[in-house]
Amino acid sequence: MSSPPRSTNAAEVNFDGLVGPTHNYAGLSLGNRASMGNAGATSSPRRAALQGLAKMRSLIDLGVPQGILPPQIRPDPEILASLGFSGTVSLSEVADTQPALVPFLMSASPMWAANAATVSPSADTADGRVHFTPANLSSTTHRSFESRQTFHILRTIFASEERFCVHRPLPGAAAFADEGAANHGRFSAAHHKQGTHLFVYGRDAEDPVISTGFPRRQSRLAGELISTSHGLDPDRVIFARQSARAIDAGAFHNDVVSVVNQHVLFTHEHAFDQPEELYGQLGDALVVEVSESAVPLHDAISSYLFNSQLVTLANGTMMLIAPSNVLATESTAAYLDRAVTDPANPIAGVQTFDLQESMQNGGGPACLRLRVVLTDAEQEALSGKVLADDALLAQLEQWVREHYRDELSPADLTDPALARESSAALHELAAILELPRLYSL
């Protein structure tokens, strides 16, 4: 297969995870303090989905392209079968014999699209295609169920083999533990230019660190294998260990304590194990390091200051798309007030969003999106109607209001009607997105 011609024009499309109908608070994510702290609370799938769609609409208004990553089927019939259960929409057998499995089977965690995959733009790959590796998410039980459907969804949307290459997930063993783009960043002077990739990990088999704290979810080996399979230039790949201090404080992914946009690394002082060594490898990149004295690590994690989207607007300035929690935390609010008036700080503006439904499960703006740099030709090659505009968002908002429950308690997860409602809603969604094979697994 010949390589497609390289483009001098590309845009970063934020593919946001559309919140699924079974969004709930089961507290399944060890190391995620928000998830653990809100276990057992009553959620609102309808409100969660509408909050996510509102963020998408606002980013479109800012000129930031948005795409849709659809929810996954819950429960997954193949996962049920692999666990020895039958039936496609009823959890009654599971609830009767293994009730503890129900929250794992009904999790709506695919909404956090930053964990869907690692993505390499065509400007960076040896064959000139966009490469995707779905994350195996093997470090947590409920998320390990996602990779099969993630692979299928990505293959459905990015179906053109001339333009895209969707790899199989890495094997689900501890040595290959992969959490996707939440532990990956790309530096570039402009989106269409060749970039440098930063792979962040928590554990390294060749340099083990004994830990008694929260799990180190990402392995270095996973990043090494992905960078090779994507055909990245080894001279443009950097590996850095996330600090144990950050992980044990609740930064279960690196995007809780740092974010990359083009030439900028916005990060907390305690995000990385050896920050000065990392900064020295970044060349001309601009490092904006927030000190512990300015924003304590606890505040950074609880407010999700760094789990924001740092985006470049049409006029070349950068804006931070942040959760409203940053304004309710004294240290982060004060820092951002100073940042937007500091000519040396690239953050020229801040826009906040109420994402409380996602935040209570440990997912801020950055968790909800998968960044995919696409040329005009690659956007044209997408299947279905997945690039969002006002008309599509209005259609999706109406679909959510018609199909999503306003309240969902943990006890409701065993309601057979919930799985039937969800299945019907998702098959209607496939029609809206013009992807008839979306849920043909």
Q: Care to describe what's here?
A:
There is one protein chain. The chain has a domain at 10-243 and 362-432: 5-stranded Propeller (L-arginine/glycine Amidinotransferase, Chain A), CATH 3.75.10.20. The protein is globular, with a radius of gyration of 20 Å. The protein is an alpha/beta fold. The chain has helices spanning 33-37, 45-61, 77-82, 92-97, 102-105, 141-144, 147-157, 220-229, 244-249, 275-281, 297-303, 325-328, 330-339, 356-359, 376-380, 390-403, 416-432, and strands at 10-17, 66-69, 117-120, 130-134, 164-166, 184-187, 196-201, 237-241, 258-261, 264-268, 286-290, 309-312, 318-323, 347-353, 369-375. The relative contact order is 0.19. The chain contains 17 helices and 15 strands.
Write the layout of secondary structure elements.
Blueprint: E1 10-17, H1 33-37, H2 45-61, E2 66-69, H3 77-82, H4 92-97, H5 102-105, E3 117-120, E4 130-134, H6 141-144, H7 147-157, E5 164-166, E6 184-187, E7 196-201, H8 220-229, E8 237-241, H9 244-249, E9 258-261, E10 264-268, H10 275-281, E11 286-290, H11 297-303, E12 309-312, E13 318-323, H12 325-328, H13 330-339, E14 347-353, H14 356-359, E15 369-375, H15 376-380, H16 390-403, H17 416-432
Parallel strand pairs: 1-2, 4-5, 7-8, 10-11, 13-14
Antiparallel strand pairs: 1-15, 3-4, 6-7, 9-10, 12-13
